[in-house]
Amino acid sequence: MQDAAIAIRDDSIVAVGSSSARGLRLAIRAVLVLSVCYLSTEIGFAHKIPPHNISALWPTGAILFSVLVVTPVRHWWVYIPAAYFTSIINDARAGFPIAAMWFIAAGVLEILIAAFGVRRFADGIKAFEAPQSLIAYLAIAVVFAPCVSAFLGAMPGGAESYWFYWRVWVLSEALAFLVLAPAILTWIGVARAGLRNISLARVIEACLIVCGLVAISIVVFTKLSASEANVPVLVYSPLPLLLWAAVRFGPVGVNTCLLIVACVSISGAVHGHGPFHTGTPAEGVPAMQLFLATVSVPLMLLAALFQERHAKTNALRESEARFRSMADSAPVMIWMSDDQKQCEYFNKPWLDFTGRCMAEELGDGWTAGVHPEDLDHCLKTYSTAFDARKPFEMEYRLKRRDGEYRWIADYGTPRYAPDGAFTGYIGSCIDVTDGKLGELQLQEQRAELTHLSRVAVLGELTGALAHELNQPLTAILSNAQAAQRFLSQRPDCLSEVHEILNDIVAEDKRAGEVIRRLRALLRKGETQLQPLDINEVINDVLELARADCVSREVSLHCELAPTLPLVLGDRVQLQQVLLNLVVNACDAMSDCDPPDRRISVTTATDKDGSVRITISDCGHGIPVEQMERLFEPFYTTKAQGLGLGLTICRSIVAAHGGKLWAENSPGGGAKFCMSLPTRRGDAR
Amino acid sequence: MISDFDTVYVVDDDEGVRKALTRLLRAAGFEVSCFASAAEYLAQDDRTRAGCLLLDVALPGISGLDLQEALAATGHERSIVFISGHGDIPKTVQAMKAGAIDFLTKPLDDEKLIDAVRFAIEKDHRARHIRAQRESIEQRLATLTQREREVLEHVVSGQLNKQIAAELGTVEKTIKVHRGRVMAKMGVESVAELVRVAEQAGVKPAASRSSN
Fold first, then answer.
1. ∠ at Cα A346 (A343, A350), nearest 5°?
2. Beta B80-84 vs B51-56: how paired, if at all?
3. Residues in chain A closer than 8 A to B27 (CB atoms)
4. Could you give phi then psi for residue B50, rounded to 5 degrees?
5. Which of A129, A151, B101, B184 has the smallest count of CB within 10 Å of its CB?
6. DSSP string, A179-211
7. C-beta separation of A115 from A109 below 8 A
8. Beta A598-605 vs A555-559: how paired, if at all?
9. CB-CB neighbors (< 8 A) of B28 in chain A
10. What is the DSSP pairing of strand A670-676 with strand A611-616?
11. Are B24 and A503 an interchain contact pair (Cβ–Cβ within 8 Å)?
12. Pairwise CB contact (< 8 Å): B20 & A479
């Protein structure tokens, strides 16, 4: 089919020229076919074996078949008469005997079946390049077409010798399709592809095979007498050379060599020489035909196998080369590793980037370019993903050829062979330094803003916090002064003073604790993720907010789940969120009656394993239309407020992989819920 | 006047502060009684016992100022020294207007605290003494008859017996007898003393019709 398509394309190119040029070209071809067939018919007649005028190999059919396989169907009407011209002339001279008409009819039928079948099912001209198409070719052209046409061709033999003629027909036609047609078709293929890049050594090798084969065949099939040649081994003496041809030259070599052997052996048989000239030619010829068939089929299969493997290897090499050139021209850096985590390939952009050669980068060599601070994380990510056969994404700094470390985003994916076997990883990297710097700047600004908002919240608590600090200071001072008095009144009251000093130490620590909490919240620092017990975080925050709540006459109620899974988070930031929410809750209740000013803080584990923190107040709730706007930047319901508190809270919670949202409680008042993923639920 | 066992009632929600103040006040010779909240104090308030209140302004639940108000409403004017974490001027003014002795800021200086407490207790004593005197005069006043009361009011207004007799439509001798009984019942020996006691008890002088 593919070939037909090529033929049609050829034709359409021709169609660009004038129609007369096209006609001329067709006419020339027809004349060529006519002359070749004239010659072959004459040769065929000359090699008929008496007494039945059996032809060992009828060449004309095979030639016409080859022509039909490689030419467009719509030109067949020219080639078929051209091929049969000689026969028809001969028959006309003989007065058109009935038998000749049967022969022509049977021949045309056979050729049509074979040509259609081979074009349709056996890849046309490429029939000899793969075992499957070769088997289809053999089944259609060598077995099916001769057998079917033989029913017509044997008609002139009459009833008594019908099956004799049937068999003669089948064998002679089959041999032609087996030996001659393949040689013609493969040579047409060679001619079409052009004989380029053929080395002299190969030409000499081909000549050696052909010469050797011709010599051996002549000796075995024509020079030796029947008795001398009756040693079976001798018949197979061309085999080594045929094998050589099959292995080294593929279908074209084997088909050519088989044709040579066939020609020489037929010639021997016809002239009464060689191993097949045992009795009458009628007995010797089928033996020879069978010999040729048994030798040809395996050799052709062998050649087809080699050809197929060769083609596959070529295709693989081509695809590999295509991949390399694509990888090298891609605007990204590409690497590949084998199934042992060792890198086995880096594309040109990578090597250009690092300024190192492939040999330096292979295996673990590439790690030398990774920034020492990023190396652990980089190898861990790679190794973990690799062992799980999962795609991964990571960022690290890689040293550029000029010595500057650039941020690289690396995306890796596992590779699998067609049979599903894991073969390693392939990854692509891009330089994201510029984007990364922007991101860092953004992060810095966000941290600054977060810190400012924290300071603002603490600012609101200053009064309450001063009170909180004053309490232990009061206790310390009064204790100390009490001790002074005791000592001046009764110098022997050491046990009393001892107790007082203990209390002073405890109170001092308490004051220190308040300052610690404050300082922690006022501290400017990078995000530090650590496993946290969220209840502890809440208790710390409530300690800070307690005094403020007292002065605002707000009561605090806690329902903390006794055991909570740990949350991976930044203590200060989470405290900031909670503090913000508590202060907001206090603000929301400023116009309520003091006994109604209640805040409740609860913690619980959600079904999905995350920790849920709820802070509810007993204020007037949140109007529905404000519910989502609350989290928008610069949206505020307070007279004094930037409107960033909740925005920052939400971004902090989101950075922890959690969610923060507001609801109205069924019993009135608002509640803010925060859900945070726990370490267990977190794959990393 | 101050006994060694005058009680200072300390109301503060902070245990550490309560403990320290207790020690300090005990070292200064006071009896101390502590309460963690206003409610706790109200439940155990014994107005017959002398002493002063050392009261934190910011208390959970009922605040210090609320307690001051609640006590005033029941007519129980305990003298109060406020203590506070921060000098909140509006609250200070409110407390002082309502009769607080002092408003001290934490941390507390022992001298100032003890002076304030001492002053408060003295005031408490004084108030108790005055109240006791007034109560005894009132008790004595209550024993006077209607006529004797009228005579007293006229005496206090500075009228002579003759004038009183004219006012009340009787003779001078009768007034003399009444006056003698009044002085005996009120336990005084001179008219001057009688006038002072009557003033203390808030007896109003009778309006004279013939003063001019």
1. 130
2. parallel
3. 482, 485-486, 489
4. -80, 165
5. B184
6. IIHHHHHHHHHHHHH---S--HHHHHHHHHHHH
7. no
8. parallel
9. 485
10. antiparallel
11. no
12. yes
Does residue A452 sit in helix, strand or coil? Answer: helix
Nearest residue to A549 (alpha-carbon basis) of A601, A585, A520, A578: A585
Distance, CA of B40 to CA of B34 (rounded, Å) = 9
**Contact B16/A485, CB-based, under 8 Å?**
no
The CA distance from A593 to A606, in Å, is 34
- What pLDDT, in 10s, does the model give residues B106-158? 888 888 999 999 999 998 888 888 888 888 888 888 888 888 888 888 888 88
pLDDT per residue as tens digits for the range A51-96? 566 677 778 888 889 999 988 888 888 888 888 888 888 888 877 7
A25 token code pair: 């070209």
B76-79: long-range contacts, CB 8 A cutoff, minimum separation 24: B76/B45, B76/B47, B77/B127, B78/B9, B78/B47, B78/B51, B78/B52, B78/B53, B78/B124, B79/B52, B79/B53, B79/B120, B79/B121, B79/B123, B79/B124, B79/B127
Confidence of residue A603 (pLDDT cuts 50, 70, 90): very high
Chain A residues close to B26, C-beta within 8 Å: 482
Whole-angstrom distance, CA of residue A395 vs CA of residue A381: 10
- Interchain pair A473, B107: CB under 8 A: yes
**Window B:141-160, CB contacts with A under 8 Å:** none
User: Looking at this protein, which amino acid is placed at residue A45?
Assistant: F
Alpha carbons A65 and A143: distance in angstroms, whole number: 15
Residues A173, A166: Cα–Cα separation, whole Å: 11
- Residue B90 near chain A (CB below 8 Å): no
Query: Which positions in chain B touch A479 (Cβ < 8 Å)?
Result: 19-20, 23-24
Cβ-Cβ contacts under 8 Å, A593 against chain B: none
Give ∠ CA B15-B21-B24 in degrees, rounded to 5.
145
Which chain A residue shows the shortest CA-CA distance from B57?
A551
A464: pLDDT strictly greater than 80:
no
> Residue A671: enclosing H or E segment and its boundaries?
strand A670-676
Q: What distance in Å separates the CA atoms of residue A30 and residue A83, rounded to the nearest whole number?
A: 8
The whole-angstrom separation of Cα B140 and Cα B194 is 12
**Nearest residue to A543 via CA among A521, A569, A507, A514:** A514
Instruction: Say which amino acid occupies A657.
Output: G
Contact A471 B23 (CB under 8 A): no
A187 CB neighbour count, 10 Å cutoff: 15
User: Given CB atoms, is A550 within the 8 Å cutoff of chain B?
Assistant: yes
Provide the Cα torsion A613, A615, A621, A622; round to 10°: -50
- Interchain CB contact of A437 with B (< 8 Å): no
Q: How far is CA A490 from the centre of its chain?
A: 93
Search chain A and give the residue with CA nearest B104. A474
Would the CB atoms of B27 and A489 count as touching at under 8 Å? yes
Most confident among A254-258, A642-646, B94-98 (mean pLDDT): A254-258
Q: Give the H or E element holding residue B124.
A: helix B110-141
Render B128-195 in DSSP notation, one character per residue: HHHHHHHHHHHHHHTTS-HHHHHHHHHHHTT--HHHHHHHHTS-HHHHHHHHHHHHHHHT-SSHHHHH
Torsion, Cα A154 A155 A161 A165, to 10 degrees, reads -10
Query: Taking the model in full, what pTM does it have?
Result: 0.47
Instruction: ipTM value, please give it.
Output: 0.73
Provide the terminal-to-terminal Cα distance of chain B, rounded to the nearest Å.
48
**Min Cα–Cα distance to chain A from B128, Å:** 30
Contacts of A151 (CB under 8 A, 6+ apart): A106, A166
